């Protein structure tokens, strides 16, 4: 076969793939920088299938299965963007509900860990680790299961070092390809990013520093004025600066240690469950789930907005409704900030750093307004929703932990320490100034 024919045939193979997902996420970092071009790996795989010698070819049924349909139903570029945004909206609200719910059930009299945001961050990084390591849920990728083909080939022809290298490359390519699939983006960026919250973690560190961290030890059943653990107040006994430093270190060390271990625990869970994890059919995802997500996103966001305006119970606004209204906005801002900024300087993820610092600063200002003497019931609820929803989804621990574990050691230490130092320094300047001059007032978030 001539060189021109080879190039023409290879181009045809590449053109079978949709351009619909190209412009939205190949340059995006979706909770982990994608370093491998899926198109290049797919081209090489198909060239191996089509141009290998007859005695080396796989059985026709395997080739047919791995190549997929010649004219698959793929989303257009605009449709892919709509699907991605829809999943982010839906999973941002679900992640926020999961975070608020887990905080509520882990804040109880006698609780051994009093900063309950820790458990949401820990659980979110476990889910993130599972999604990163899993190779079964999205095995069909965009209709051509490249990794699965390589896995079958290694099982049939073991002992070949080149096959092992191909499998490793296929794993890497599969991980990059997952980050272009709207449903995966919704789960990783939307759910995990909203389930975890960097701004709440730094807020807990500041409250530990200022000796204002809520404690459930002496609380009655009604934990606070609006039934949320985040806004309950205490009357702490004064302590010296050394104990405050130890309190900050406890929050930081416990959060970092548990979340990093949680990520690796998620890896192990994915490996253990791989034989039992189902695969989402490509056609079902494209033709039903993606389209259903659009309807669900529009309907759910509209519903919670209407309920926030006309609530059956006014106290629901501060508990969850305002948080659900603001959550998708924070998640979408984080998604696009990461997409456009994270790749600009590889050793330092600027997008994640920017949203974490920005969200922490906004949370500090909202906290001050909420605890001021002039705050009304409705404004208190709005600020609670802004902190739980917008700031909670704008900032993320899961992405931050992934970046800390994948960067080079020196870059990871710089990135991690600078993130904590700048964010905590901002809260000392914003919340500390208010706390040590005017003082926090009692909350009025209930009618």
Overview of the molecule:
It is built from 17 helices and no strands. The longest helix has 33 residues, at 241-273. It is 68% helix and 0% strand. Helix 10 crosses helix 14 (350-370) and helix 14 (350-370) packs parallel to helix 17. It has 447 residues and is mainly α.
The parts where pLDDT drops under 50 for at least 5 residues are: 1-75, 219-233
Helix content: 55-70%
Counting DSSP E segments of at least 2 residues, the number of strands comes to 0
Structural class: mainly alpha
Looking at how many chains there are and whether they match, the oligomeric state comes to single chain
Query: What does the largest sheet look like?
Result: none
DSSP summary: helix tally: 17
Query: β content, as a range?
Result: under 5%
Mean pLDDT: 80
Radius of gyration: 24 Å
Shape: globular
What order do the helices and strands follow? HHHHHHHHHHHHHHHHH
Distance between the termini: 80 Å
In summary, what is this structure?
With 447 residues, the protein is mostly helical. It has 17 helices and no strands.
Write the layout of secondary structure elements.
Layout: H1 3-15, H2 22-25, H3 38-51, H4 60-67, H5 77-105, H6 117-133, H7 146-156, H8 161-178, H9 182-195, H10 198-209, H11 241-273, H12 282-309, H13 316-341, H14 350-370, H15 377-394, H16 398-406, H17 409-437
Helix pairs in contact: 1-3, 5-6, 5-9, 5-12, 5-13, 5-15, 6-9, 6-11, 6-16, 7-8, 9-13, 9-15, 10-11, 10-14, 10-17, 11-16, 12-13, 13-14, 13-15, 14-15, 14-17, 16-17
